[in-house]
Amino acid sequence: MLATSDLWFRYQDEPVLKGLNLDFSLSPVTGLVGANGCGKSTLFMNLSGLLRPQKGAVLWQGKPLDYSKRGLLALRQQVATVFQDPEQQIFYTDIDSDIAFSLRNLGVPEAEITRRVDEALTLVDAQHFCHQPIQCLSHGQKKRVAIAGALVLQARYLLLDEPTAGLDPAGRTQMLAIIRRIVAQGNHVIISSHDIDLIYEISDAVYVLRQGQILMHGAPGEVFSCTEAMEQAGLTQHWLVKLHTQLGLPLCKTETEFFHRMQKCAFREAS
What we know:
Radius of gyration: 20 Å
Structural class: alpha/beta
GO molecular function: ATP binding; ATP hydrolysis activity; ATPase-coupled transmembrane transporter activity
Largest sheet: 6 strands, mixed
Distance between the termini: 53 Å
CATH class of the largest domain: Alpha Beta
Number of strands: 10
Number of helices: 11
CATH topology of the largest domain: Rossmann fold
Domain ABC transporter: 2-236
CATH architecture of the largest domain: 3-Layer(aba) Sandwich
Family: Belongs to the ABC transporter superfamily.
Number of domains: 3
CATH superfamily of the largest domain: P-loop containing nucleotide triphosphate hydrolases
Function: Part of an ABC transporter complex. Responsible for energy coupling to the transport system.
Helix content: 40-55%
Keywords: ATP-binding, Cell membrane, Cobalamin biosynthesis, Cobalt, Cobalt transport, Ion transport, Membrane, Nucleotide-binding, Translocase, Transport
């Protein structure tokens, strides 16, 4: 399990995370939302062991995180982070070498590396551009290469920082499909994003952060229907939630579900 217990973190004298108690093992996809400066990025760096809290703990497999070199190495094979900017994680000019980088550092046999790289490329739907030089890839394609580089570790938890930032509608749709395939393999995904539509549509649970504290936690429909919490957090409601809260229409998870329901209602009225 990956969780936090009374997690406090400060930069110099400024507290950024204030007593956070979070559990990411309860839901396949957990969303983290909040205004800029609420602590999402700092939380991710604590979860991955890049930062160490001054008080409280990150819990891994039920125990406080071991910050020794061996402990952090073990964590990062099970908890992988993909940053918003893929350029921060891409080091090679060819895709296969970049994705295999971490495995070669771990001394994984080449046959196993080849198998894992092929699986990761398939999972992120990158086979059709895997032989192109990385500098020729689009921003969205580079994001998928960065995700593949995390997936080859066979991590149980994947931390995605703004996975849809900079993507066009087609790229965003592809990213949603990739996340769903990752979850279908039994993994947990934690998403930090300002993309409220993404969080509402794909998350099973949502934490709303405000000034380093948990303002609200629950299912997406419950969280985003709370107008007061959204206003306090400086967030906007998903348009499907607005239709539900303001017009009393059924709460739908996706645009497709909404229009399907509306068509059924129109058909019943016409008949």
